[in-house]
Each structure stands twice: as C-alpha cells, then as structure tokens.
C-alpha cells in the first residue's frame, strides 16, 4: 500500500492539502451526477439535486444557457471549492463539447490532475478521447472512474483493455466490480482490502464497507454469493498478474491511471474515488513561466488568468477573471502587479466559488482558483505577482478552424457590434479579425456550435441582432518577422490581411497554397497557427 501521508512534506500544510482538478468525460457519462456527489460529500450542498436545480434556474435566465440545455452540453466553465476530509478540493469545470476545445485546453492549464469519467457500457467515447489527448499534452495525472456499473456494463477486462489501447496509458485497478447489471453487488477495494456493498434501496446512502483480511478471508463468502466470489477471485488473480501495480510516480507522470468502478447516481464508489484524489492526486505543482518557473512553496504570491467570463450576471455587466494561484498566501486587499501593464492592482473583491454561491475570498493559497471582477484589464494569460516580471508560458491561442463574416443586423449598430465582438475575443470565446480593407469583421472559432452560441449571446447580452455569413477564407495565421517584410506583404496582399483584437497582424488564407506562397516569397516572415497569450 502506498504512503497515505502527503507527498510534499516541505510544502506549507495549507498548500499540501489542496487538490485542484477537472473532470473530463463524454456527454452523458455522468459528470454532473458525480460532481453533485462530490459536493454532497464535501458538505457543500445538503442534498443531491441542487446542482442540477441551480443549473435549471440559471438556464431560465437566458436562451444561451437554454441552448446549452437543449444540446446537453456545458458551455461555460466554472470552479468550485469544498473540503473533503483533510483536503481542500478545487474542482474546475470544463466544457464537454469539442467545439470548445480551446477553452478546455486553457482550463486544463489551471489544474494539477484530471478525473476521467467513462460509462461502463460505452467505454472510451469520442469526447473522452479528445479531452484525454489534451491532458496528455500536459502529462496531467489522470484518475479514472468507470460509472453506471448498476446497469449492464462491459466486461471489466474489456474496459481496461480499451483504455490501455485507445489512450495508450497503463491502467491499474483500484477496485474490482462484483457482478454486472442487476447482479452488481459492489466492489472489492484493492487498495484498502475492503468490500464495498451498494445499497440499491437508497441512492444517497454511502455504501456499506466491510474490512476484509485479504482475498482468502472467509468473511468474503458471508457477503458474496459463491458464483460471484469465484469469478471475483479468478479475475483479481488475473488482473494482478496482467496489470501493473499502482505506482505513484507513473501516475504523476501521466503514464498510468488507477480506475475505480462505481455508480455515481447510487453514490457508489464516489467516496473511494475522492479518497484516491486525496491520496494520489498531486498537490499544487510547479508552474512553467519565463524567465523562471514558479514553485508553489514560494512566499511571494503569483497567479495567472486562465479564463475570463463576461456578463456572468446580466444585471451587472461584470467580467470575472478566473485566476489560478500558483504560489504564496494571498490575502484580500493585497496589491499585486499586473505584469502586462506593469500597474498595481488592489484585489479588494476576489471571489471564491463555493458550490452554494460566490463568496468573498479572504485568503487563497497556491492551488486555489479565485475570481477577480474587473472591467477588462485582466486577460487570459496575464500574470499577477508581487512585483516580479514573470510571463506564464504554455497558454496558447489556436488558429481558428472556421471563419465567418459577422454583420450587424442593423447597420447603424456596427460600432456596438465591434465592442461586443472585442469583448468575446478577450474572453477567449472567439477570434475576431478586422480586415485591412472593407467593413465588418471576420470571426474565427474552432467548432460550428460556437457561432450559434456567439450569435445568441450577442443578441441577449447586447441586444444586437447579428448575422454570420460564409467567408471566402478558411483559416488564419499570425504573422511575425521583420517590419519591412511585413509592410511589403501587407501592401501587396491587402485582401488577405487583418488584425486580431490585440492589433497583431494575421494572414487570412483560403488554401494551404496561400501559406506556402507567403513562406516561399517572404522567407523573413513566419506564419504560425498558435500565438502565446500574454
Ligand atoms: P453528464 O453531466 O456527463 O452529461 O451526465 P449526467 O450526470 O447528466 O448523467 C447523464 C445521465 O446518466 C442522467 O440520466 C443520469 O441520471 C444518469 N446517470 C448518472 N450516473 C449514473 C449511474 O451511476 N447509473 C445510472 N444508471 N445512471 C446514471 P438522465 O435520464 O439523462 O437524467 P435524469 O433524468 O436522471 O436527471
């Protein structure tokens, strides 16, 4: 068994007890249900159903969220903090739909681990795969929860094989299911040698836990019918032979994932998973930055913005910058340096996102996520420090894959539309390019659905009807290089040139051929598909 104490004895205890993670899954696998049970056991809500109920109430406020409901996707991401046992969990929600993958990518830069939820009957689905690939880019540690074991599900070895093969990650069972579908009895906890029995009569009741002295303990037969026990013993023996043991380093490197089996709706297996996050999920990690990385145990406070959400409350036109604290002990009222503008900012109204509501954050430690209301000064990628000039690295902006022209439904409102579009560009919800010639804007997104969400939000939040029309361009590349070469390119290719919301020049392309031509004719310039946000 692994050492259950914290893995970072040198960190201040308040930091060492923090676990900041996201849940990734394919829609319908049970992310919302699992989140709800997390909050329930974290004492953040009193009864199951509140998260969904709160969601419904929020949704009635705008069609944008109604659209989210219709499509069964979660468009907006948020953060929730709660205590569980000795731990402080910070759960960062990710949009599950692939059309929002850039947003998801940035959200995942703010966490130290991810919980991957899969449906026991469906295995690894397309969105799981995509989100997993994003985690892999950062070698994030992954803990897996195989949900809906109360229903007919696939053979346990099949599920494990599929994860190993499709995701190219080793899997080690933390628990082993006993029986399937209607015969599903519970799990054998392989880490703590316990039998966990599911109670079908009461969905909110935590499983009965029976201490077992190893798999040859005769006590097992008192609770597990002979045919199921025989199968369990056989399977566990095989699993121990064929599958790797739980190696903490491999888990931290993102090359091995422990898997728990359970049923979120029946509250089954959830606590074991939470214990697993506490015991094995890493404490706040070092943050890559320039000119030096930032370590969580540093005294000075450092944080960075990974998400900006505008108009969270339509009654107050506020923007909230979600900040991941990277080091130190932040206290409300602190003056921090906004590195990009080199200006001091007094952080007087930071909020913590407790499940029940937003609350003023009197303090925050490395690992925490706080929200800072602001009027647009804070942008994605911005660093806040106690004076040091640090640039957080690894938060890219991706070239959009779909471009459309945006026009105000009412030509008199073009200026208003510009303002709305710029705000969404700063929020990271879309790329907005102002062409060098002609009027209007070109809006770039990763997935088609984003256009619909944008149109709906612009209409709701700004009262502006907007039309998105096909554009002759299919992609965009940021241009960098010598000014002389840039001017020359701009002068002779005006119809391809535009500027993004930061004023940086981009080259709008129709075909790969356009890019090849520029690269051939302008060897001093480079065209890139990503831009580091700063
Ligand atoms: P998501 O956020 O990943 O999209 O999934 P969500 O939690 O909304 O769950 C999707 C559906 O799966 C829900 O049913 C939910 O009740 C069900 N579900 C979640 N966990 C389990 C489980 O352990 N076992 C079983 N059998 N079902 C589970 P729904 O019918 O879409 O919604 P509802 O009417 O139940 O709210």
- Class by SSE composition: alpha+beta
Q: What percentage of the residues does DSSP assign to strands (E)?
A: 25-35%
What is the CATH topology descriptor of the largest domain? Rossmann fold
Strand order of the largest sheet: 17-16-22-13-14-21-18-19
- Silhouette: globular
What is the alpha-carbon Rg in Å?
Answer: 25 Å
Total of domains: 3
Give me the number of helical elements.
15
Low-confidence stretches: 1-6, 52-65, 67-77
Span between termini: 44 Å
Q: Mind describing the biggest β-sheet?
A: 8 strands, antiparallel
GO biological process, one term: regulation of translational termination
Keywords: Cytoplasm, GTP-binding, Nucleotide-binding, Protein biosynthesis
Family: Belongs to the TRAFAC class translation factor GTPase superfamily. Classic translation factor GTPase family. PrfC subfamily.
Pfam family, one: RF3_C
Descriptive keywords:
single chain, 534 residues, alpha+beta, Rossmann fold, Alpha-Beta Plaits, 15 helices, globular, disordered N terminus, binds guanosine-5',3'-tetraphosphate
